[in-house]
Amino acid sequence: MNFDAARLILPLSSQEATVIETLQSKLDALRVSRCERLAWSESYEEMLSQLGQSGFLEQVIKPGEYFPDFMLPSAEGQLLSLAAFLAHGPVIISFFRGEWCPFCRLMLAALTEALPQISAAGATLLALTPETGGLALKMKTYHGAPFEILADVDCGIGLAAGVVFKIPPKYRALLGPNFPDRHGNSGWYLPIPASFILSQDGRIAWRFADVDFSHRPEPADIIRAVANMNGKL
Amino acid sequence: MELSQVRYFIALCKTLNFTRAADSCNVTQPAFTRAIQKLEMEFGGALIFRERNLTQLTELGRAVRPHLEAMIEAAEAATALANAKMGRTTSSLKIGLGPGIGAVSIASAVREVTSKLPDVTIHFEEAGPAALIEAMLMDSLDCALLPETTELPERLNRWPLYTDRALAVLPPNHGLIQKNAVNAADVVAEPILMGENCGGFAKQLADATGFSLQLQRCNGAATQLLELVAAGLGMALMSERLRYAAPLTTRPFHEPELNRRIFLTSVAGRPLNLAAASFVKLCRVKDFS
Fold first, then answer.
1. Could you tell me the residue ranges of all domains in chain A?
2. Which of A119, A139, B82, B90 has the most Cβ atoms closer than 10 angstroms to its Cβ?
3. Can you tell me the mean pLDDT for B63-80?
4. Helix (H/G/I), strand (E/B), else coil: A59
5. Which residues in A lie closer than 8 A to residue B106 (C-beta atoms)?
6. Domain B164-259 fold
7. Which pLDDT belongs to residue A231?
8. In a 10 Å sphere around its CB, with 0-12 CB exposed, 13-18 middle and 19+ buried, how is residue A228 labelled?
9. Given this model, what pLDDT does residue B88 score?
């Protein structure tokens, strides 16, 4: 994978090599390697500046607010409701960009690895993707993900959560003309890869939101946040 | 962007009047205007022309409207479904099935919808593509499965579901039962029953090979045609996604591959009821392979 190539380019200090690698350090290495391609770095910068200037993050739903209630199709074709999961404990909702996104793959791998601790903390993890046509199942199978991946068809819940944006022109060119087939619509929208932790009443207790898709929450931070919540309950 | 901004924009699309649109959204006009401006900033251009006596959508506004409407509907349907009281939502799910397209592939999606909305009445309608398209446009069908060969009007949304392959459907004791798979040379001298509900595979075979096949025309429902196959009148080439009961036997058909892509279609821009919206979503997400 490209990630391995990036690791060869990035010199690791002996100190770094001995500590456990964080998700963010892997994401950073991937970003550095991708940025070597001018078309990629330009489209990345364009997206960051567009979302930064429009005050995008102010629109994302915040701690204290209720997360929109939903029932969505799972990768396996069941209709699953948020309420049913909240009945068992806190719910972590992570928005993903799609099966094609290498940054999402790194995060999914990290979450898959962290799932036993998330479950031990009493929380349920739900991954939301805007993709259709069997791609949610493909993503789940690829990672052997032991959590539900739900398809947020036409980005409805993403819109209600304030995480959806129109993809800027350069990034659209990078994604290619067949990209709309993945969503089953020609709208060219994506969610920012935000994560939310909901307490059992459906309110947001914690969130991670960044317009930079190469920035993701560390699973360790998510687990800590869930543990803190349980302490407060 | 925010759900409320998109709601305001859609209200404005419908009224083309800032005052009335703001009223219909229960929001003050300055707040309404600010929300539209924020949306325009995010889209990087004007969505609305504002002139003294004329408010009109710009080209950009017209281009983004259908997707934003679809997004709002998706959000509302996902929330409405979560809030639907079991057994208290009476609605119907009306699905059209094009020629030779069975309900086997979509049965699990229908089951999932009825498990959440138990009072839903299911209607299937088997007919030719033109009749199904007409029924969708007249709002007497929610959606339809149609083969790719159908010319679809612009007003229909379409999503590819799966590739439908042909099987050789054989009468009892037919010689070809001995073979693991059947090819064009095997059937050139065999009587083949062909009707409007056979999916056009026999014609595809004739076109692809140039063979003059022994075609026996038989119009009517697929079940009746299959009765004739069972009676030994001839074989048939039909979808692998139909169920064939004894005494019929099926064999895969290769050389040439006979297949057609099947699309799910529904009228663009027309909100579907909860059952139909959920069904369409499930089908769009599903891996049919």
1. 2-232
2. A139
3. 93
4. helix
5. none
6. D-Maltodextrin-Binding Protein; domain 2 (3.40.190)
7. 65
8. middle
9. 57
Instruction: State both tokens at B105.
Output: 């592939």
Phi, psi at residue A79, to the nearest 5°?
-90, 115
Kindly report, residue by residue over B18-66, the tens digit of the pLDDT.
999 999 999 999 999 999 999 998 888 999 998 777 789 999 999 999 9
Residue B34, chain A, CB below 8 Å: the answer is: no
Is the pTM above the cut of 0.90? no
pLDDT of residue A1: 42
A151 in B contact zone (CB under 8 Å): yes
Please answer yes or no on whether B159 and A166 come within 8 Å at the CB atom. no
Ranges of chain A with pLDDT below 50: 1-18, 233
Interface predicted TM-score (ipTM) of this complex, two decimals: 0.86
Chain B, 43 to 72: residues with Cβ < 8 Å from chain A are 43-44, 64, 67-68, 70-72
Which chain A residue has its CA at the smallest distance from B116's CA? A79
At residue B8, the pLDDT reads 96
Q: Looking at the domain that runs over B3-83, which CATH code has it been given?
A: 1.10.10.10
Q: Note the pLDDT tens digit of each residue in B95-106.
A: 999 999 999 999
Give the confidence band of B89 by pLDDT, cuts at 50, 70, 90: low
pLDDT over 80 (residue B112) = yes
State the Cα–Cα distance between residues B85 and A179, nearest whole angstrom.
Answer: 37
Q: Per the structure block, which two tokens stand in for B160?
A: 């590819």
Q: In the CATH scheme, what is the homologous superfamily, with its name and number, of domain B92-162+261-285?
A: Periplasmic binding protein-like II (3.40.190.10)
Residue B168 parent element (H or E): strand B156-170
- Residues 6+ positions from A10 with CB-CB distance below 8 Å: A29, A32
Q: Where are the domains of chain B?
A: 3-83, 92-162+261-285, 164-259
Residue A232 has a pLDDT of: 54
pLDDT of residue B54: 79
Q: What are the CA-CA distances from residue A113 to residues A28, A89, A108, A196, B20 (Å)?
A: 19, 20, 8, 19, 53
* CA pair distance A41, A23, nearest whole angstrom: 21
Q: List B238's β-bridge partners, or say none.
A: B167
Helices A102-120/A2-9 angle, 10° precision: 100
Class of the CATH domain delimited by A2-232 = alpha beta
Identify from B285, B287, B288 which residue to disrupt to test chain A contact, counting A C-beta atoms within 10 A and taking the largest count.
Answer: B285
Q: Please determine whether the domains at B3-83 and B164-259 fall in the same fold group of CATH.
A: no
